[in-house]
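Issue 218. Parser rejects a valid record. Input:
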Amino acid sequence: MFIKRFIKYIQFEKKFSVHTVTAYEKDISQFLEFLARVELDIQAISHTHVRSWMIDLLEKGVEAKTINRKISCLRSFYKFLLREQLVLQNPLMQVKVPKIPKRLPVFVEEEKIDMLLDGDNIFNDDFDGIRSRLIIELLYGTGIRLSELISLREMDIDVYEKSIKVLGKRNKERVIPVNFSLMNLISQYVIVKKQQQFDNKSSVLIVTNKGQLVYPKFIYRVVKAYLSLVSTNEKKGPHTLRHSFATALLNRGADMNAIKELLGHASLAATQVYTHNSVERLKLVYKQAHPKA
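Output the parser choked on:
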């Protein structure tokens, strides 16, 4: 089947991340299911059929951002099919994606994060409590992605240089500095982790109570539970802490290119979205403090 050849292509030649490969496979399978439902063949469709699929998704309540991602996936798929001479034309050439309303990244204010991390009796002193605190502090203190946190290994921690080595998108490595208190917390956690005497000695830093690799929902639950103590934001996931990390750096005058490197963004355009949050903060300060505001 064409899809299997394409998946191998993006997995081994393009070296896409596991998360991206999974998402691409799911999106293409969903499109093929639609074609089967309307009794169409992948080699014989036109742009009108792709538009019909988009309308079908919109009617089911799928957001414009998600649809754009799916169309981007299909563009890559058909480029591959053309290259392999498996189709004669690319139906995506005449397809326009729906406009996405601009949304500012959701973040938690520094004061609220400080309340969470400096508050008394918030995190327990047992393995669960120390692990939960480490999850929050790593996400907020380094800005790493959920997938990067899950795959972080003990050998990626450099105690002497006070830094961590992260494997990001497209298998691109980057080194992120870690402050003294976070490094101490990591060292404390590693000690407590060894004391659990798990049957399987995992090299991965964050593990479950059985010593197994943590999964995304596990991290989501931890982050949401603790952010709910200090924030009323609707979004309270790991990415909220990544946004909070970037916004805090920008508000304190950090260079945009430096933030880009710390976040592991491929282009500066992805990082510049945080300038909007900074401008909004300046507007608020101006309105509250200026006599003519």
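Fixed in the parser; the record now loads. Residues 18-37 form the longest helix (20 residues).
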